[in-house]
Amino acid sequence: MALVVCTCLALSVWQWQRAAQKAYLLEKRQSGHVIADFNATIDLQNQRALEGQQFRLHGHFDDSRYWLLDNQIVNGTPGYDVITLFRPIYSEEWLVVNLGFILATHSRAVLPQVALPSSLQTVNVEFKIGKWAGFTLATQPDLNTAQPELLQYLDHAFFVAQTQRPIAVSLAYASDQIINDIQPHYEAVVMGPDKHRAYALQWLLLAVAAMVVPYLAYKRKSDE
Fold first, then answer.
1. Which end of the chain is more exposed for a tag (fewer CB within 10 A), N or C?
2. Strands (E), the chain
3. Strand partners of residue 51
């Protein structure tokens, strides 16, 4: 019983903390839609400041390569997310940037083709803080040897090993469309704070029930 109660209480606290984090992100985004010019030397050193803030990057894409993140669905349509490398001006580190969603072709054997610009670009992005990969059963990002550009999930160490370049630990998502047929769709807050609070209350009530029900059963048995 103690294990169940402790687990429920821990989950309740975790959901409450998630609610606070989501509320902070929403407040930060709604407090002002000013897009800050990105300074790699300063901004990459403060992950907390990156979270929930939009930045304007000036720099160049690596137009020699890109990757496609598999199993993406937008508005009920299957496709891929286009993943690129971008080097901001005056920075020694490259950023991994998710440009957005591109439709799948008629066959999984034929991947969409993407032409990246080679000239100086201005890109508005948001940063994802924390782990890059979501839930996945894949054991490594590139499982398909016949299509090495096809990825099952994103991983910082993978890009460092693949490119042999200094890669920033923060994953960037394009906020605006840069290339035709590639649509940004990243949402920093998918589940709102109210829903997290509701889950926190649910786990708290389960913890209370796990304590009260056995007690009432024991008391009834003792009275008999």
1. C
2. 36-37, 54-61, 67-74, 77-88, 95-103, 121-128, 150-151, 171-174
3. 127
Helical segments of 31-153, H only: 40-43, 47-50
Q: What is the pLDDT of residue 165?
A: 95
Model confidence at 113: pLDDT above 90: yes
Confidence of residue 163 (pLDDT cuts 50, 70, 90): very high
Q: Which amino acid, 123?
A: V
In sequence order, the 6+-apart residues with CB closer than 8 A to the CB of 190 are none
Percent of the chain whose pLDDT exceeds 70: 73
Evaluate if residue 30 carries a pLDDT over 70: no
Buried-exposed string 3-37: b where 16+ CB fall within 10 A, e elsewhere = eebeebbebbeebbebbebbbebeeeeeeeeeeee
**pLDDT for the residue 211:** 74
- Phi, psi values for residue 108, rounded to 5°: -70, -15
Q: What is the rounded distance in angstroms from the CA atom of residue 200 to the CA atom of residue 198? A: 5
Residues 6+ apart with CB under 8 A from 104: 78, 79, 80, 112
Q: Give the domain ranges of the chain.
A: 1-34+189-224, 53-187
Average pLDDT rounded to a whole number, residues 40-51 = 69
Considering only CA atoms, which of 68, 42, 69, 74 is closest in space to residue 55?
A: 42
Most confident option among 72-76, 95-99, 208-212: 95-99
Regarding beta strands 121-128 and 54-61, do their DSSP bridges make them parallel or antiparallel, or are they unpaired? antiparallel
CB under 8 Å to 19, separation ≥6 — which residues?
A: 193, 194, 196, 197, 200
